[in-house]
Amino acid sequence: MSVANWCVLAACALPVLTVGMAKASAGMKSPRKGGYDNHNPRQWLGQLTGWQQRAVAAQANGFEALPLFIAAVLMAQQAHADQSSIDHGGQPG
């Protein structure tokens, strides 16, 4: 598997990892005590501050950029561009 394909796989995992950190920070607290509430996630997300709030924003940014990144990699590969140029962001070798 090429470096570009590994990057696509990593980019798919990043949004899940970033929001996972925010949710894990709530620990095993019950929703009544500030823990993650799976039945009302938007309210819980709205109450976050600090790095947890930034982690949720990073998740949103990751999901917004993901389709374009995947499309760019696939289009370059379908166009039979030099794989080393794809892997290194257009820089040869």
How does the SSE layout of this entry go?
Layout: H1 3-24, H2 41-46, H3 50-78, H4 83-87
Helix pairs in contact: 1-3
Concise structural overview:
The chain is mostly helical and 93 residues long. The chain is built from four helices and no strands.
Please report the distance between the alpha carbons of the first and last residues: 17 Å
The shape is elongated
Order of helices and strands: HHHH
Sheet having the most strands: none
Rg calculated over all Cα atoms: 18 Å
- Helix coverage percent: 55-70%
Query: How many distinct helices?
Result: 4
Structural class: mainly alpha
Identify low-pLDDT runs. Answer: none
Q: Assess the beta-strand content as a share of residues.
A: under 5%
The count of DSSP E runs of length 2 or more, i.e. the number of strands, is 0
Could you report the average pLDDT, rounded to the nearest whole number? 86
Q: What report would you give on this structure?
A:
- This protein has helices spanning 3-24, 41-46, 50-78, 83-87.
- Helix content is 67%, strand content 0%.
- Helix 1 runs antiparallel to helix 3.
- It is mostly helical.
